[in-house]
Design brief:
- With 464 residues, this protein is mostly helical.
- It is built from 19 helices and 3 strands.
- It has one domain.
- Helix 4 packs antiparallel against helix 5.
- The chain is globular and about 65 Å long.
- The chain starts with 6 loop residues before the first helix and ends in a 9-residue tail after the last helix.
- 47% of the residues are buried.
């Protein structure tokens, strides 16, 4: 019987090649800015043929699967998954201050949106939401840790309103959060939320009103634990981060290892939410590309309302992503030759997809954050007055390489999480490896789609 190569042997042979592939891809392109009024950083063209760029990215994921498959020592896998160090905990003491800062930021956002300068590029509301929150804060949730429970202003306001404490319907699960996340990204794409501070303030107030109403009916804990899309999004991203809150305080762990614990993915609704997190980042980037314009233009010119075209792309794209993942789970059942149901496999492997979403979010927003951080600081210092000269940083070309590397790093981390999950599910080593085939194929497809979007010249979505 042939001996499987040791991890160190395989790493010695394939590790340098894998690193070289990552470096080559990381130097090939530039990253896109965010939508709307903060879409000021543009993508450059890649310096290698697109087919080679995408094939190399897929090869990196495939090679990482082969490399991780050689790691068969369960004790070693368990050690990586469970390793951690307890840190001094200041979370409880800082929570009141965090909530106060969150409420102040919410008040500044609304005030600046309603009464601040009309120019989106200098309005504190636009910059706070798209750069400060969607860029910096969400980015910190998967790079450092999820601090949203400590600063969530919507929950702070909703928490002071009496509740009827009706039972939250179990059949709804996380589906309201799925719909809410898709709706928020759809509004961001089809409306000038990043260009119109007044509209943005109205949407923020509407979200606050919905949060209060939901909390009045079912209670704060049930609403924000199940139906609130922002809370669930940041909680999911927080499982990628190295810092986490436990009953014993703050714990430092290997980044991404919070994804190996799938107890929080309890049903198809939770799987649907994870897939939605992956999909919305892809959708947000795709609708700014030239190929999407080529698809949308003839439909709009034929008389189909642009809003309907974008809605169809949102719903159809999400259904396609979910179907692809569920098909991968069914393939895992066949290749692993297991009695576990496809739904059970889908639940267990779903958290690995969050590493993919985090890597793409970083690639999609890093340039914007770096470029507009000085503008954000100046605008927040005087939120109701316009400044004629707001500073912006010139983003160097190497930032695009960091973005591409982030996409690949997210996919490589996802491969390891799936590998660890498989070894926690199956007692047989070969069965554990075979169970990952379908998920790996899906990851390669996601990788190539993400890299293709990053490689495209970007811009504002057409017709909206």
């Amino acid at each position: 019987m042939r001996r499987l190569p040791r991890p160190s042997d395989l790493a010695g042979r394939t590790g340098p090649a894998l690193v070289a592939l990552v470096v080559a891809l990381a130097s090939a392109g530039r990253v896109a800015a965010h939508a709307g009024g903060v879409r000021s950083a543009t993508r450059g063209s890649i310096t290698v043929p697109t087919w080679l760029f995408l094939a190399t990215g897929g090869a990196v994921v495939g090679a990482s699967f082969l490399l991780s498959s050689a790691v068969t020592d369960r004790a070693y896998i368990r050690f990586i998954d469970t390793w951690g160090r307890r840190l001094p905990d200041a979370g409880r003491a800082a929570r009141p201050l965090g909530r106060l800062l969150g409420v102040v930021a919410l008040a500044v956002t609304v005030a600046a949106g309603l009464f601040g300068p009309a120019d989106a590029g200098g309005n504190a509301a636009v910059l706070l939401v798209w750069v400060g929150w969607w860029g910096v804060f969400v980015l910190s949730s998967y790079l450092v840790g999820n601090a949203w429970p400590a600063v969530d202003p919507f929950r702070a306001v909703a928490g002071v309103v009496p509740s009827l404490d009706r039972d939250y319907p179990d059949r709804l699960g996380a589906w309201p959060a799925v719909g809410g996340l898709l709706a928020l990204v759809y509004l961001e794409v089809v409306t000038p939320l990043a260009d119109d501070p007044r509209l943005l303030a109205g949407v923020v107030l509407g979200y606050l009103g919905l949060s209060v109403a939901g909390s009045v009916v079912v209670g704060v804990d049930d609403w924000f634990g199940n139906a609130d899309p922002i809370s669930r999004l940041l909680s999911a991203y927080g499982r990628v981060a190295p810092l986490t809150r436990t009953d014993d305080g703050t714990r430092f762990r290997v980044p991404g290892m919070g994804l190996t614990d799938a107890d929080w993915v309890d049903g198809r609704d939770d799987v649907g939410f994870v897939v939605a997190v992956v999909f919305v980042t892809t959708y947000d980037g795709f609708v700014g590309t030239g190929p999407w314009a080529a698809v949308a233009r003839p439909l709009v010119e034929a008389g189909v309302p642009a809003l309907v075209v974008y809605l169809a792309a949102m719903v159809g794209g999400y259904a396609l992503f979910l179907a692809l993942y569920l098909a991968a789970a069914r393939a895992a059942r066949r290749t692993a030759d297991t009695y576990l149901a496809p739904a059970a496999l889908a639940r267990r492997f779903a958290p690995s997809l969050l590493a993919i979403a985090a890597g793409y979010h970083l690639a999609h927003n890093l340039a914007t954050v770096l470029q507009l951080a000085p503008t954000l600081a100046v605008a927040v210092a005087s939120p109701l007055s316009a400044s004629p000269t707001l500073p912006r940083l010139i983003v160097p070309d190497w930032v695009g390489g960091v973005g591409v590397a982030a996409v690949l790093a997210g996919h490589l981390l996802a491969v390891w999480v799936a590998h660890s999950t498989a070894y926690g599910l199956f007692p047989d080593r070969l069965q554990a490896v075979r169970s990952q085939y379908g998920v790996t194929v899906a990851m390669v497809a996601y990788t190539m789609a993400s890299l293709w979007i990053v490689s495209r010249p970007g811009g504002a979505p057409p017709f909206v």
